[in-house]
């Protein structure tokens, strides 16, 4: 089961961002024919731009310290996103947009929540006593424990370890998830762990994923529809992506590449 079936994308003057990007100039319709869609392509080809525009259109919350709506750097993308027309099979009511770099914003957000909760306890201790104090403090400690159970202590783990914990903590059944370059934080082993998490949620728990990635591992997610961004956006098999062929040729014969550098 997957939800977003098609998007009709706006067109406009190529002097204006994001229509100035070749891939997004006149895209027309993009169909999502499987629960996993992967965007691949060269740096600057427009993958993140389209992912953010979709997140804006779908009204998905961003994991991180800034919401997409209040991010002033996204004004051009917002206008574009708002003009997208969506076609759903069933409307998903949960989901998020997550970029690898937003992880630190998310940790900061948790730290701020923790400080606020500590402040609340100090405040309760000044104002309350007896059963009232016990109940109020108990409720705050319950919230702190729930966060700790869900994410662990993210200040004591590496970027990659924490990133995977946050994803595991936030992904739920029957959601739509837009994720930008998750591999940025992850070793090949952890990319495989993420691969297995996404595969399970897509195959067995009704989730839909749209992922922008440079990771040949994530491109091989089973039955993923891969769109390669370039002069235009084309559907490709993972064996035909530039990432896969370049990495494969390089690993087969590094010396041949290094001679030309
Ligand atoms: N607000 C903006 N105004 C004008 N140009 C922008 C704006 N935001 C991004 N761009 C340009 O749009 C192009 C596409 O950026 P985008 O982040 O979508 O690329 P990408 O395919 O995700 O690249 P990467 O793989 O490096 O993340 C870049 O050249 C970037 O400089």
From TrEMBL:
Membrane topology designation: Peripheral membrane protein
Main location: membrane
Domain of life: Bacteria
Signal peptide: none
Cited Gene3D superfamilies: P-loop containing nucleotide triphosphate hydrolases
Entry keyword set: ATP-binding, Cell membrane, Ion transport, Iron, Iron transport, Membrane, Nucleotide-binding, Transport
Transmembrane region(s): none
Keyword Membrane in record: yes
ABC transporter domain segment(s): 7-255
Protein name per the record: Predicted ATPase
Annotated source species: Algoriphagus winogradskyi
């Amino acid at each position: 089961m997957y939800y977003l079936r098609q998007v009709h994308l706006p067109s406009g003057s190529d002097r204006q961002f994001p229509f100035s990007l070749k891939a997004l100039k006149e895209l027309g319709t993009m169909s999502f024919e499987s629960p996993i869609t992967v965007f691949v392509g060269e740096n600057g080809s427009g993958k993140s731009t389209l992912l953010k525009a979709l997140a804006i259109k779908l009204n998905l919350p961003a994991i991180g310290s800034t919401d997409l709506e209040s991010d002033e750097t996204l004004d051009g993308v917002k206008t574009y996103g708002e003009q997208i027309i969506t076609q759903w099979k069933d409307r998903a009511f949960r989901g998020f947009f997550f970029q690898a770099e937003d992880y630190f914003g998310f940790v900061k957000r948790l730290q701020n929540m923790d400080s606020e909760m500590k402040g609340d306890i100090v405040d309760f201790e000044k104002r309350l006593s007896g059963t009232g104090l016990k109940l109020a403090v108990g409720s705050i400690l319950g919230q702190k424990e729930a966060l700790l159970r869900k994410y662990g202590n993210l200040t004591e783990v590496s970027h990659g370890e924490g990133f995977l914990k946050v994803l595991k903590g936030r992904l739920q059944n029957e959601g739509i998830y837009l994720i930008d370059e998750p591999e940025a934080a992850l070793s090949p082993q952890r990319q495989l762990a993420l691969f297995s998490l996404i595969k399970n949620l897509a195959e067995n728990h009704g989730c839909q994923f749209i992922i922008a990635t440079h990771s040949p591992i994530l491109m091989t997610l089973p039955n993923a529809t891969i769109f390669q961004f370039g002069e235009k956006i084309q559907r490709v098999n993972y064996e035909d992506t530039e990432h896969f062929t370049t990495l494969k040729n390089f690993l087969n014969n590094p010396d041949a590449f290094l001679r030309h550098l």
